């Protein structure tokens, strides 16, 4: 189902986090507007040192697609010529990664999990101007390990 941009009124397909017409962020999808809070433990490793895995619920995924806009492209092209980092694109990557992790967390919760292990990220382009960020991991139920203090 498409969504309507509050900035310009344009219509964009669901799955895109920016308006295809004006480049404005979809409401609720931009971490600069709405803080993404990950309330469950998540790790790229297959286990937690601080928790014991009690049950495996299966794979979970998070996907997001961001469009590049003209100003960001011009800035990146200039940075490419003179060298340095492209802060505009880095910001898009951070937003996309956070959104993908947030979606993965929500899907893990729907499966009854309280953590995700083995997280991986995949970055690719869709068409010539869209960046797709996907995350995957395994939804698990964990319990904190008891630490014995002696002394």
From TrEMBL:
SUPFAM superfamilies in UniProt: YbjQ-like
One Pfam family in the UniProt entry: YbjQ_1
InterPro entries from the UniProt entry: UPF0145_dom_sf (IPR035439), UPF0145_YbjQ-like (IPR002765)
Domain of life of the native organism: Bacteria
HAMAP family: UPF0145
Recorded family membership: Belongs to the UPF0145 family.
Protein name per its UniProtKB record: UPF0145 protein CEE69_15665
């Amino acid at each position: 189902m498409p969504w309507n941009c509050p900035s310009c009124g344009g219509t964009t397909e669901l799955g895109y986090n920016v308006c295809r017409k004006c480049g404005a962020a979809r409401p609720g999808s931009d971490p600069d507007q709405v803080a993404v809070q990950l309330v469950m433990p998540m790790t790229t490793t297959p286990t937690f040192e601080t928790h014991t895995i009690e049950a495996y619920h299966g794979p979970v995924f998070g996907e997001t697609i961001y469009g590049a806009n003209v100003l960001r492209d011009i800035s990146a092209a200039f940075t490419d010529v003179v060298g340095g980092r492209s802060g505009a694109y880095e910001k898009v990557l951070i937003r996309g990664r956070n959104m993908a992790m947030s979606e993965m967390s929500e899907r893990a919760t729907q499966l009854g999990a309280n953590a995700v292990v083995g997280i991986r990220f995949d970055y690719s382009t869709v068409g010539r101007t869209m960046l797709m960020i996907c995350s995957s991991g395994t939804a698990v139920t964990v319990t904190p390990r008891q630490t014995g203090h002696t002394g």
